[in-house]
């Protein structure tokens, strides 16, 4: 009887290790295929946390990836900061609380994100990377891809076991206004404005900004133009070429900004998918920059 | 575009009074009685927009030619809608009347007068002066042009969808940089076949000399529309339905919209558009669009195609399809083949649909100038 129990335990351990290894492998790339995630869930992979980042919680309630928890990124990650900035990163202690206690993520957890708009999951992706969590990927094609593959859907809300999330802040992922000032004119740094061209030119502005305009020397590539049908990132070869035309190449440091950090986080994800090694997000972005009188600006006509 | 504040909508700026228009009496254009000290009496016979439906009295004295053209301008008349819809309509007079009622409530509630392009925002965008009643000679792109042409053209042009139009993003051009007065005021004709049938419309070749110095221009010549190579995917709408709500207010329902890129055959090759290959856009019309007003109002729907000539305003020098020959050649995905048209609309679109055998053949690798690129993948 003792021997039988021992064999059973070994068998359970082997079964548990296989999906765990598969989940580990996902961390190498920023995208994961919907079918791969479905297989991991089916195999009962431990330490897997799937997060539904769709805008509407009611959509989550109608059906979601089995085992997924819901997070409203635009609400739960948004807070007001200095200089009337909004949508900025939360305090690190608050992030630890959110990721660890509320979402049950610890350093070994493989986090898989999805949405249906193409830019909510990417904001959480950057937040996790900034707080030092390596194992995070986004489902290619998001929720539409999950549905079109007719993969299993559940209405069950999983019970979350709180975990200890200890942030290991990665300052090289972040840019501040003073950092950008120190890099102005540096040929090895490219300042990339990822807002719609209308805002880059200053013909339109974010409601929280007082004036329309941009940072001097910035080039423009609207982040959502990189996606097809919202959740499918365009052909990588084509994107690399498009960025190269703007002078945005992997050998340079790329500093991204938008209005409140959400679009910039989206472009961070895109450049990571394209293997750019050195990318920073200026998450206070134009909403902070436009209000600081001493910072240089190219001002547009939007008031 | 944020709505104007109430005071902005109606406040007449002091500097307006120093302009030519401002030196006239309000009553010269708007009517009413400026001698009366009774508000009600002073407003009798007053009109808020004296330029619609006839601008002759208000504008004609100084701008005779423009006021005359306005009468037939499509901005005023939208005159091409009815002839197009009537080709599909029932010949039963009762049904035709119901269809006309629907069109009057919806299609013809929208127009742009002289005032709505030169003084205020258009009614469609809730009106209001854009500069304290000052007149602007050229319409303002944000407040006037894209206030109506916003959801598709404006979004494409300024890059709210796609990468924007290089004319705007790279060269700082606005609507009026390409669209001449003739485009906007019309050519004086009142029997246009469609909105492209206006004599002297702006064209790419007005600025871009299509000589043979660019190899691809020499190869494709006037067989392929400029848009086929230089446009990005654009919005397509399916199934617009109209009706009136419980308060009698007109509504439009267009539940399905999709960004697509579709090359089709040009069904109306003429002097202005001689190209064989054009881009086609799915227009929102369906046989049941006016069902709120009566059933089977358009039994002859098949007489006209509902995949129509498209001129997306999101042009770029380099696009996904013009990077390599075989991005188009042999790439069935880009062409409006039969399988991409719903069975019930195949007859209507027979002249636009591209048969598989017509799709240009894939080019041999050796003929390609560039070295094959290293394949990249996200996985």
UniProtKB/TrEMBL annotation, chain A:
Pfam families documented for this protein: Rhodanese
From which residue to which does the signal peptide run? 1-22
This protein's source sits in the domain of life called: Bacteria
Q: Which InterPro entries does the record associate with it? A: Rhodanese-like_dom (IPR001763), Rhodanese-like_dom_sf (IPR036873), Thiosulfate_sulfurtransferase (IPR051126)
Q: Which UniProt keywords apply?
A: Pyruvate, Repeat, Signal, Transferase
| Residue span(s) of domain Rhodanese | 44-155, 185-298
Recorded GO MF terms? transferase activity
Q: Which PANTHER family does the record cross-reference, listed alphabetically?
A: THIOSULFATE SULFURTRANSFERASE (PTHR43855)
Q: What is this protein called?
A: Thiosulfate/3-mercaptopyruvate sulfurtransferase
UniProtKB/TrEMBL annotation, chain B:
| Signal peptide from the UniProt entry | none
Annotated keywords? Pyruvate, Signal, Transferase
In terms of SUPFAM superfamilies, this protein maps to: Multiheme cytochromes
Keyword Cytoplasm assigned:
no
Signal keyword on record: yes
> Superkingdom of the source?
Bacteria
Q: InterPro entries, from UniProt?
A: Multihaem_cyt_sf, Multiheme_Cytochr_ET
Q: Mind telling me which PANTHER family this protein's record contains? A: C-TYPE POLYHEME CYTOCHROME OMCC, DISSIMILATORY SULFITE REDUCTASE SIRA
What is this protein's record name? Thiosulfate/3-mercaptopyruvate sulfurtransferase
């Amino acid at each position: 009887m003792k021997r039988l129990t021992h064999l059973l335990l070994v068998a359970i351990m082997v079964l548990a290790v296989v999906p765990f290894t598969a989940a580990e492998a996902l961390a190498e790339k920023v995208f994961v295929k919907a079918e791969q995630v479905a297989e991991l869930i089916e195999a009962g992979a431990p330490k897997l946390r799937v997060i539904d980042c769709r805008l509407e919680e009611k959509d989550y309630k109608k059906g979601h990836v089995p085992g997924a928890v819901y997070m409203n990124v635009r609400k739960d990650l948004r807070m007001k900061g200095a200089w009337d900035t909004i949508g900025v990163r939360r305090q690190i202690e608050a992030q630890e609380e959110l990721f660890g206690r509320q979402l049950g993520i610890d350093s070994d957890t493989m986090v898989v994100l999805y949405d249906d708009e193409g830019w909510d999951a990417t904001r959480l992706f950057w937040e996790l990377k900034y707080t030092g969590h390596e194992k995070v990927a986004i489902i290619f094609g998001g929720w539409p891809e999950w549905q079109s593959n007719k993969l299993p859907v559940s209405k069950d809300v999983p019970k979350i076991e709180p975990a200890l999330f200890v942030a290991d802040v990665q300052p090289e992922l972040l840019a501040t206004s003073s950092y950008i000032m120190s890099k102005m004119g540096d040929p090895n740094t490219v300042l990339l404005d990822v807002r719609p061209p209308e805002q880059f030119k200053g013909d339109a502005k974010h409601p929280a900004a007082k004036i329309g305009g941009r940072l001097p020397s910035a080039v423009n590539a609207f982040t959502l133009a990189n996606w097809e049908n919202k959740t499918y990132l365009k052909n990588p070869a084509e994107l690399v070429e498009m960025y190269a035309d703007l002078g945005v190449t992997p050998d340079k440091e790329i500093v991204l900004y938008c209005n409140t950090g959400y679009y910039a986080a989206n472009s961070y994800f895109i450049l990571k998918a394209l293997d750019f090694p050195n990318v920073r997000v200026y998450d206070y972005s134009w909403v902070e920059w436009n209000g600081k009188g001493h910072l240089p600006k190219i001002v547009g006509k939007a008031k | 575009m944020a709505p104007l504040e109430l005071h902005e909508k109606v406040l007449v700026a002091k500097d307006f009074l120093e302009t030519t228009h401002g030196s006239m009496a309000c009553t010269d254009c708007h009517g009413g009685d400026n001698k009366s000290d009774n508000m009600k009496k002073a407003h009798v016979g007053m009109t808020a927009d004296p330029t619609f439906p006839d601008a002759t009295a208000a504008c004609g004295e100084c701008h005779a030619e423009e006021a005359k053209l306005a009468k037939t301008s499509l901005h005023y008349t939208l005159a091409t809608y009815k002839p197009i819809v009537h080709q599909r309509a029932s010949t039963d007079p009762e049904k035709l009347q119901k269809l006309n009622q629907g069109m009057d409530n919806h299609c013809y509630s929208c127009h742009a007068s002289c005032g709505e392009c030169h003084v205020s925002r258009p009614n469609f965008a809730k009106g209001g002066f854009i500069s304290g009643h000052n007149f602007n000679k050229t319409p303002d792109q944000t407040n006037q042009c894209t206030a109506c042409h916003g959801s598709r053209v404006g979004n494409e042009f300024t890059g709210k969808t796609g990468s924007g139009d290089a004319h705007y993003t790279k060269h700082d051009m606005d609507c009026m940089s390409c669209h001449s007065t003739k485009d906007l005021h019309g050519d004086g004709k009142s029997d246009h076949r469609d909105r492209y049938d206006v004599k002297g419309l702006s064209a790419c070749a007005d600025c871009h000399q299509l000589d043979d110095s660019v190899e691809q221009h020499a190869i494709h010549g006037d067989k392929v529309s400029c848009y086929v190579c230089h446009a990005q995917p654009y919005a397509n709408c399916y199934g617009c339905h109209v009706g009136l709500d419980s308060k009698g207010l007109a509504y439009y329902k267009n539940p399905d919209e999709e960004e697509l890129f579709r090359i089709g055959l040009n069904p109306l090759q003429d002097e202005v558009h001689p190209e064989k290959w054009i881009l086609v856009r799915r227009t929102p019309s369906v046989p049941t669009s006016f069902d709120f007003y009566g059933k089977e109002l358009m039994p002859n729907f098949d007489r006209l195609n509902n995949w129509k000539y498209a001129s997306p305003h999101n042009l770029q020098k380099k696009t996904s399809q013009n990077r390599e020959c075989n991005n188009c050649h042999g790439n069935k995905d880009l062409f409006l083949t039969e399988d991409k048209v719903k069975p019930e609309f195949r007859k209507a679109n027979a002249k636009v649909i591209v048969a598989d055998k017509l799709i240009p053949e894939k080019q041999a690798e050796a003929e390609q100038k560039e070295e094959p690129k290293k394949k990249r993948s996200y996985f």
